[in-house]
Amino acid sequence: MELQGINRNITGRDEHVPEIERFKRTVKERARAVVNTLPFETLPHRLIVEIVYNTMFWLNCFPHKKGIHPTLSPHTIVTGSKIDYDKHCKLQFGTYIQIHEQHNNSMIPRTSGAIALCPTLQCTRLLVTHN
Q1: How does pLDDT run across 93-124, given as a tens digit for each residue?
Q2: Cα 119 vs. chain centroid, distance in angstroms?
Q3: Region of 94 on the Ramachandran plot (φ > 0 left; ψ -120 to 50 alpha; else beta)
Q4: Can you give the residue ranges of every domain in the chain?
């Protein structure tokens, strides 16, 4: 591996890697910022998972200074798609929205409230708040 220019950084038990520890702090700080914008006192487990997913999505959408490519983001490198403002910035995480429900010609509601867990309207990850 050394002949191919691959350097390994092996850590022992209870040893910390500063770069990873800093990245974990960054993710926690961003997630904490999102949690403090939400109007809830307790959060369901699913919402916490989606907060971390949302945080990682946005951290990976922009190129890193010390990344493997100067202009491509990790998201673009892995998925091949670029972030589009009109598509990915329509909804803020935690926005209350109304979603369309299947209905007939009766007087039952045709929409129900939900919380947006991703930035696009085409997303299927919604936390329905009531029926």
Answers
A1: 877 778 777 778 888 777 777 777 877 655 65
A2: 9
A3: left
A4: 16-128
Q: Considering only CA atoms, which of 22, 37, 61, 1 is closest in space to residue 116?
A: 37
Q: What is the pLDDT of residues 3-12, one digit of tens each?
A: 877 777 777 7
Q: Under a CB-based contact definition with an 8 Å cutoff, are residues 115 and 129 in contact?
A: yes
Residue 17's Cβ-count burial label (10 Å; 0-12, 13-18, 19+) is exposed
Sign, Cα dihedral of 18, 19, 20, 26: positive
Overall pTM surpassing 0.85 (yes/no): no
pLDDT at site 125:
58
